[in-house]
Write a structure and sequence with these properties.
Elements lengths: L2 E8 L2 E10 L6 H4 L4 E13 L1 H12 L4 E7 L3 H9 L8 E2 L1 E7 L5 E10 L14 E2 L5 E4 L3 H4 L8 E5 L3
Parallel strand pairs: 2-3, 3-4, 4-5
Antiparallel strand pairs: 1-2, 6-7, 6-9, 7-10, 8-9
């Protein structure tokens, strides 16, 4: 099996850390039966998702009867791509944080963990703007994707983005 997981408690919820590739070998049934209450799924370790993996994931998030709140955290660039491509990829979950690629004119590139903070001051269907990030050279870094496309999955979550604190 190419997908591995680890369970831990944190911030008053059960945290699932997923690692590997979602493909035709993915079987999340045993994981689904172990989840209950408030659950956060960390997708930071997901490297690849093919169409069979998408089907398994969608079935998984649809069938969590004992989960009262589902949150996605640390979404990798690969999972952000699926969130943007597949309407029901998120299921009933909301996204709390995700990785975004940034680059600087000096040549530095890095991924920054962004937090999607709930905001009553942001209208639904308005995409957030990329937060400012300063490079080690002192210059402002820019999001290395088109914001209108990369943040599309957040259109129905009224949020403000901020860089997560290390």
């Amino acid at each position: 099996m190419n997908v591995r997981w680890k369970l831990r408690r944190g911030s008053g919820r059960l945290v699932v850390e997923l690692h590997g590739d979602f493909d035709e070998t993915a079987d999340l049934g045993p994981l689904a039966s172990a989840l209950y209450g408030r659950v956060a799924i960390d997708l930071g370790g997901v490297r690849r998702i093919n169409s069979a993996g998408v089907r398994e994931w969608i079935e998984f998030v649809r069938n969590l009867p004992d989960v009262t709140e589902l949150t996605l955290i640390g979404c990798s660039k690969v999972s952000v791509a699926q969130l943007n491509l597949i309407d029901n990829f998120r299921g009933p979950a909301h996204v709390e944080s995700f990785w975004a690629p940034y680059s600087c004119s000096c040549g530095n590139e890095r991924e920054i963990l962004l937090e999607a903070r709930a905001s009553d001051h942001v209208r639904r269907r308005r995409l957030p703007t990329a937060p400012a990030v300063i490079c080690s050279c002192g210059q402002a870094m820019e999001l290395d994707e088109l914001p209108d496309r990369y943040f599309l999955f957040l259109a129905d979550q009224p949020v403000r983005l901020g860089a997560a604190r290390a």
